[in-house]
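Researcher: Next entry: Protein MIS12 homolog (Emberiza fucata).
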Amino acid sequence: MSVDPMIYEAQFFGFTPQTCMLRVYIAFQDYLFEIMLVVEGVMLKKLDSIPGCKITPSKIRKCTEKFLLFMKEHFDKLFSKMEEVLLQLVLNIPKNVLLPEDKVQEQYPYSEEEFQALQDELQQLQQQCRAEAVLEQELRAELEEQKVVKAELEKILQCFDGLENICRENGAGNFKESFALLTQCSKKLQDVLKEVKEKSKTMNQHDQLM
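Model: Predicted structure:
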């Protein structure tokens, strides 16, 4: 069998020429085996009708097998020549023939270097698409986080609005001013607490020395 893959022929026929030849070979071989079995059956019937015949069925089978081997050897030689002729003259597309679906290559020819450049460009575009897909996922995740933060801020604003309303209802004036005052008082309390801690520490050290 030919080792040439014959890819262009496979594109045109829909099957590889080697596959076609293999199927033809198997079909011929099966037909030969069937014919030999028929011949053997006829010979056995003829021998049964001959009185005093000393030829046994086992001898007939051995002769049949020898004849089959002889026929198969000659068939293989003939088929090899037939295969060579068919692959070269029947199942072969000449080098100067272009299939209709490949006409575009004739209109827009390109070299191997140009094809490689297109392949490189395609690979870069694929990498960019993957990078943009990752970036899009990150942006979507960040957007979801911003939505959560926005919801929390809205809750805080609603809380401040409620406190401001309570301050107005109780005559505390502007909530922002009250909040600033509370912040200053809190800072002063923190300073006083820090001062008390430092004095307490100093007194403890003095007691230890005494």
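Model: Note for the record: The two ends are 112 Å apart (CA to CA).
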